[in-house]
Design a protein that fits this description.
There is one protein chain. The chain has 439 residues and is α/β, with parallel strands linked by helices. The protein has three domains: 4-12 and 236-374, FAD/NAD(P)-binding domain (3-Layer(bba) Sandwich), CATH 3.50.50.60; 35-124, Alpha-helical ferredoxin (Fumarate Reductase Iron-sulfur Protein, Chain B, domain 2, Orthogonal Bundle); 138-233 and 377-437, 3-Layer(bba) Sandwich (FAD/NAD(P)-binding domain), CATH 3.50.50.60. It contains 16 helices and 19 strands. Helix 14 links the parallel strand 10 (296-300) and strand 11 (323-326). Helix 4 runs antiparallel to helix 5 (67-75), helix 6 (81-87) runs antiparallel to helix 7 and helix 13 (280-292) runs parallel beside helix 14. It is globular, with a radius of gyration of 23 Å. The mean pLDDT is 95.
Length: 439
Amino acid sequence: MADIQAERLGATQLAENFADVHRPFDHGGAVVEANRCYFCYDAPCINACPTGIDIPGFIRAIATGNVNGAAMTILKENILGGSCARVCPTEILCQGDCVRNGPGDRAVEIGLLQRHATDYLSAIGQHPFERAPDSGKSVAVVGAGPAGLACAHALARNGHDVTIFEGQPKPGGLNEYGIAAYKLPNDYAQGEVAFITAIGGIEIRYDLALGRDISLAQLRLDYDAVFLGLGQGGVRNLGVPGADLAGVDNAVDYISKLRQAKDLGALSVGATIVVIGGGNTAIDIAVQTKRLGAEDVTLVYRRGPEQMSATDHEQDFAQTNGVRIKHWLRPVRLEGDGNVTAAVFAGVRLEGDGLVDTGVEQNIPCDMVFKAVGQAFVPLTDDSPAVSGGRIDADDMGQTSLSDVWAGGDCVAGEDLTVQAVQDGKVAAGAIHKFLVGS
């Protein structure tokens, strides 16, 4: 019988397990770390940041005591700099390209310094940007995730009226519904949305999904331009027998439920869990179920650690949290009599560019299975811009095949980083502004 139950851990332990995973710098620690920076003239860390933040510039500001100036340097390029400081894989972006990387040294803690600066400005409680005079133009933004929010803020700064249509009851996109709770605790995503919309000229309407409640054709009639920041609302099928057994769930759905739970102890979780996938979502669900009290969590991926889209840092983090990771195993079926009791995998090896079975099967007993094999874009059914490869076609400025419609984020790029979605929204906003003013 399935051993799925709630209240595996007490409230005190759960609060500790889901507290902020990164310990922030105090003022003295931030200054000491900032002074480790060489303030390179042609800093490779800037090129490694999708939003192009002047990283040596903001770090120098911290080193000289100008934390407000550091925050402004960050936010003028990335209005979601606070959440990006917490969720970005800095080890493969800015910190990965830090010139201090090498034997006997370590990269400057750019992510923590960025958090220090943006948290300082947030504590002051003032919005750092002013809105331009009303332009008389209006833009519809579909999706209140990072791409949509970044686009909306940039447009509002230029004096345009923005209406965001969000299919969920709360804004924030993956920052609210899809990121591990210990990365963005204490309702951080909602605080950031409030900060962004404080500039004025942005209205968010909730529970309105494109294709269900609103149409792109109508938005194009009602507004001067449209930006699509739809994300990827679909979940790929596992495609094996037994995927409909009780105890089998999509990782993104469970993470969303966890993120919205008022009482983590009320969440039912299995004793023995198998996670199928190799990305950040797989890591997030594996670690979070372990922190909810699961006794044994095994993450299984069909290729090797080098091919996992989850970074080395995330893989190490999972293992230090008690998650077992197995590679070179392909799911073939889930077994059980009503409730899942085992996940069966075929051993595989790489032959040329493809995988071939080794002829050996491995059975992993479990009472819960989480599918984390990727998300997919849900195609629009009316007046859609051109789509290829399952995603919206857009040029470097976010322009789609429709003259007044732009798009960005995961609905264009596939599963990508929060910081890239922010950049997409920012770039598209610049193109939309030029379109609106006729330049």
